Amino acid sequence: MLPARPRRALPRPAAVTASAVVAALAVTALTCAPATAASAVVAALAVTALTCAPATAASPAAPGWSDAGWTGPAAEATFHRLSTYPVYLNRPAGTDAAAETVAEISAVSEDGKTFVHTDALARRIGFVDITDPAKPVGRGTLDLAADLGVGAHAEPTSVAVVGGYVLVVVDTSESFTAPSGVLVVVDLETHAVVRTLDLGGQPDSIALTPDKKHAAIAIENQRDEDATPEGADEGDLPQLPGGSLVLVDLPDATAPAGWALRPVAFTDGDQALPAFVAAGIDTPQDPEPEYVAIDPTGSTVAVTLQENNGIVLVDVASGEIDRVFTAGTASVSGIDTTKDGVIDQSGAITDVPREPDAIGWLDATHVATANEGDWKGGTRGWSVFDTTTGEVVWDAGASLERLAVRTGLHTEDRAAKKGVEIEGLAVATMDGTPYAFVGSERSNFVAVYDVSDPAQPVFSQVLATTNGPEGILPVPGRDLLLVSSETDEAGAGVRSAVSVYGLGEAYADEAGSPAFPSVVSADAGGAPIGWGALGALAADPRDDQRLWSATDAAYKDTRLLSIDVGTSPAVIDRQLRVTQGGVGVTLDVEGVATRASGGFWLGVEGATGAANEIVRTNAYGAIVERVGLPSDVAAGLSKWGVEGVTTVVDDEGEHVWVALQRGLTSDPGGLGGTARLGRYDVADGSWTWFAYPLSTTSVAGDWIGLSEVVAVDDDTLAVIERDKLNGEDAAVKRVYTVQVPAEDPAEGTVGALTKTLARDVLPDLRATAGWTQEKLEGLTVAGDGTVWAITDNDGVADATGETVLLDLGSRTSVFGKVSTTTSASVTATTYGRAARVDVTVTGAGQAPTGRVQVREGSKVLGTGTLLVSGDRGTARVTLPSTLAVGTHRLTAVYAGTSTLAGSSSSPVLKVTRATPTVSLGASAWTVKKGARPTLVVVVSGPGAKPAGTVTVKVGSTKVATKKLSGGRVVLTLPPVTRTAKVTVRYAGSTSYVPVTASRTLTVR
């Protein structure tokens, strides 16, 4: 063990040390010091590079990170999430809520108020009113067979809106070898079918020219993944008939009867076109068009051939093929390519076909593609092509994989396949800025880029979505972005939804809080720290704005993660590898607590009752002790075991509290009647147990249990109690407190606890305007008194993957405390001289301990430790000498302790301009007549070097006005003819008052 150090004074009684207290010995600095135990030395060596200093910044290629930390757009250019609408809420009457229903490709009415989407699973299209984007309202659906009359096998593949009509693209194929499809024109208001046009093949996407005079539809005639062509492998090409393109002429938007189709062949019968062969298309006789987009001039259609890894450009007016070129291959390094439970970013893919899916025009000569891949490729990113040459001018490389890791959205399950799987892409200009929106099908996000320079996209923002974002629909007229997600698995609590975002300050007040991401990771070893499934929190006493968490069994090779919550978003910037005998271990860590003497207690849930345990590590993460639950308790556990851990140190020594998620099979009421809280006495190894009364649920398949325990003080515990429901169904996400009885229950019996609601967290989760997360699992009180909670994202498995870190407010607001009063005084000062704030904190009969901060806005200007006398504490805080001239409205803040409420005072500091010193020098002050001496003027002051101008007079004649450079001016005077006074006047600045200096120049 390392030698003990004096503990820093904390803003809470010394008895409260765990869940809110990290090792007083270490964690911030001690990971760089040697340990005496052999295992500790090995562990320290393994993690030193990751923990001795904050991680380095990511390279410019990694979106969202720079030397300054997480970067994003200015507030006025931010997309704010306004709502998340589950489309099953818009199901037809009598339909089971659990029946699959999705939102895939979408369009919007010309007034931007009606959202229309395809639903291939339910074989219908849906209508949603987004007049109020924060409160979407379902407006019903149309069944393709019953309402559109297109047959029982029909599936919608795409949709567009022209004037008062919806163009519904429908696949009516009864087999892969006999593809067919139609374009159904539907009245937007009445939902009546106006016209049906035969497309001659199985269609995929549709796009409109900017003037809506033409449309283009990709006729894919898709392959059968289970078919085996002669001489090829299963799912290979060719599988004829080959695909094509259909142009739709829309001369009058009000008269669909006059609309006509113009087929554009991509093959010559069963033979390949020469242009496709020359371009090196994979299987040119079976092109399989996937996605279409039309350039800003309305003259050219770009078509992706996903399976064939190519792009075709077609002239709208003539229907002629202008150019065909391959999308080429890419090699990407620095990514996770192995499904092994470890986020290992040292892998690479080499010469992989891009196989683009969605495509969009950035300008008249550049297209961008979402490189999803299909059967041979997928480069985990997106690319920009120059359409005049067919060359790649920009490629995302590994940056989106890194973005997923950085934001906790990495899908380890897909690491060996196509990773983030970039499928959707849309381009639009909003508020004068051209944006590209790029969707990750597997990591559930949309990355936003400024494409003002098409050849150099600049990352702007990342938006969280629900599972499988498919349709990306900008609505420029309303500065909205709508993202529809195609994954719907009611049994797993994953539902298809439409996410609505608004751009700019006009939507800021309607937006959810906190913004996504609420947590990101910094770099270690040149790559972002991998993280996810954070189900535990503990505070760090060495930094009032730092927490600790851990990865659970969603990942192998368990890590403890240090989170800086003093920034927004919070930053994971250090990690400790949990080891035993110098070797990394995998634990299902569901709780983290800290020890006054150094190190951690981990609450570990086991696959069986006997495997549940609490694990003690040293400050390096090396395991030094494993403590199993009593055999009678372990025998009564099913799969729901240890879910939280905290520690308390009092006069009787160190105690570890654990929360068991549910009751024992032997408890009254079984698993659902009560949960268990247990106290382990570290000194004698004894356990004491208490029964916590659980709420009840009547929802089939649901249950309620505990997810966390944290010591509020030595007699008060707080727990998280939650149900298993998410989204619209979520009901119980609460923080309760319990008082520990003054006397323990008799040996062999279980004591009773009474709970008090401290905070219903469900409104906080709903306030994000996103999918309401199920697993509210971590809770702690930071050193500054802020109560933090966090959701476990399950490693993006059967979950949206979004992690929500919640600032629930002060300890006082959540748990309630004895009141305090803070007063502060400060005297005026001049620029460049440090002011001092005298702070006094008075408690109601209790001595306030800890520290005070002096802030201006959210910026901390200084801190001081209270010196206690009776029920009063005083501190003198010295402010920076660099405060600008003007009135500074300060806030002196006392965060409080476990028993004392925080309080604040608002002194006003006036900083006036300082008086500078003007020094004059010359090459000579006694000169001959006609000489031109050199004058040196130096203006100095107590702060930054003065700026502004000086005016020079010789006698009564002004000879020059010059700007200071570095606080000085050097100039040559005009020829002098007689003795005169040289007068220099410094005009002053925002920081300094004007000053005049003079000296006599003698002529002889």
Automatic annotation (TrEMBL):
Keywords: Signal. Residues 823-908 form the Bacterial Ig-like domain. InterPro entries: Big_3_5, Ig-like_fold, Mesenchyme-surface_protein, Phytase-like_dom, Quino_amine_DH_bsu, WD40/YVTN_repeat-like_dom_sf. Residues 1-37 form the signal peptide. Pfam families: Big_3_5, Phytase-like. The keyword Signal applies. The keyword Signal applies. Residues 530-794 form the Phytase-like domain. PANTHER family: MESENCHYME-SPECIFIC CELL SURFACE GLYCOPROTEIN. This is Esterase-like activity of phytase family protein. It comes from Cellulomonas fulva.
